[in-house]
Write a structure and sequence with these properties.
The radius of gyration is 21 Å and the shape is globular. Strands 1, 4, 5, 6, 8, 9, 10, 11 and 12 form a 9-stranded mixed beta sheet that branches. Strands 14-17-20-23-25-24 form a 6-stranded mixed beta sheet. It has a 3-stranded parallel beta sheet with strand order 15-18-21, with no helix packed on it. The protein is built from 7 helices and 25 strands. Helix 3 crosses helix 6. Strand 2 and strand 3 form a beta hairpin. The chain folds into 2 domains: 219 residues, Alpha-Beta Complex (Spore Coat Polysaccharide Biosynthesis Protein SpsA, Chain A); 101 residues, 3 Solenoid (UDP N-Acetylglucosamine Acyltransferase, domain 1), CATH 2.160.10. It is of the alpha/beta class and 327 residues long.
Length: 327
């Protein structure tokens, strides 16, 4: 079975961490996020992987290379002049996927979901597609997926976070298994998303869309606060729940707690960093305090013409651009 990793998105809500790279290429505890996805697929024997590219494509290629470091073989597809949406991405990779059952996975997740169990259910059910779902107990901003008797029956809006009565809604994990026949629904050469172009018409036609429900560990890194929260969960048990990247220059008198330090960072005497993300090449001066923030070198703002609308707002402090995580 082959797979396609979706890695074409902009990552605007992770700005400024994504100023000089796209979201799947950002480091997570020393490894590119998309590298975790590639290794995850390899553990299930999925070796042939397509990765779609659009925004800052070279950052993904630098992160993954030919895939051998992560146990896979990668073929890249490029979406130009504009991003194509999930269905459009499949059309663009059609020649690599249309000969057998294939898996689609989002390039921004970390999980230990059992793909083999989902694939077994998929094959036994005869479904044209199977979506892997998970309870959204916290009623976060993930669109609700309706299922009944092991079948997906439709899609809803974001759940009401104030509604605590009744069963938790189901949400999509970003992993689904499709049969080549799904390409019969996918239009050629146009921007399109997969729910309106494939799932809704297939359900309306009476196709079997399987629902594989999991309670496995699953993290989706789409915002800076989530990036830090998930990093700290993965660091549970580590000293001060802190990760330090390559080539650090950190004073012994500096205090660092609940933070992620990227590469080539300098932190001066008596400085304090807590609940923060410190980007590549940042210098924190002696006695400075950084708290509940993401910090990058201000000079890399030149990579972006403007701050994206969905991004958290920051300010330039000396040679750094500091973004408070609580706004």
């Amino acid at each position: 079975m082959k797979a396609i990793i979706l890695a074409a998105g902009y990552g605007t809500r992770l700005f400024p961490l994504t100023i000089d790279r796209t979201k799947p290429a950002i480091p997570l505890l020393g490894k590119p996020l998309v590298g975790y996805v590639a290794e995850y697929l390899a553990t299930f024997g999925i070796k042939d992987v397509v990765v779609n590219l659009h925004h800052q494509p070279e950052s993904v290629k630098r992160a993954l290379g030919d895939g051998s470091r992560f146990g896979v073989r990668i073929h890249y597809t490029t979406e130009l002049p504009r991003i194509l949406g999930t269905s459009g991405a499949l059309d663009n990779a059609r020649e690599h996927l249309e000969d057998d059952t294939f898996l689609i996975i989002n390039g921004k997740i970390v999980t230990d979901i059992d793909i083999e169990a989902a694939l077994t259910q998929h094959r036994e059910s005869g479904a044209i597609a199977t979506m892997i779902l998970k309870e959204n107990a916290a009623r976060e901003r993930f669109s609700e997926v309706y299922e009944e008797g092991g079948r997906v029956t439709g899609f809803g809006d974001f759940p009401d976070p104030n509604l605590t009565e009744g069963p938790a809604p189901m949400m999509f994990t970003g992993i689904h298994i499709l049969e080549p026949r799904a390409f019969d629904y996918i239009p050629r050469g146009v921007y399109s998303d997969i729910v309106p172009t494939f799932y809704n018409p297939a359900i309306a036609k009476g196709e079997h869309i399987g629902a594989h429900i999991t309670n496995a560990r699953w993290f989706e890194l789409s915002t800076i606060p989530r990036y830090l929260e998930i990093s700290l969960k993965l660091l549970n048990g580590a000293k001060h729940r802190t990760f330090v990247g390559r080539n650090p220059n950190i004073s012994e008198s500096a205090l660092i707690d609940d933070s992620v330090i990227w590469d080539n960072v300098s932190i001066g005497e008596g400085a304090r960093v807590e609940r923060s993300i410190i980007g590549d090449d940042v210098v924190i001066g002696p006695g400075e305090t950084i708290s509940d923030s993401a910090v990058v070198r201000s000079e890399i703002l030149g990579h972006s013409s403007e701050v994206p609308e969905k991004a958290l707002r920051g300010k330039i402090v000396g040679e750094n651009y500091v973004v408070p995580l609580i706004q």
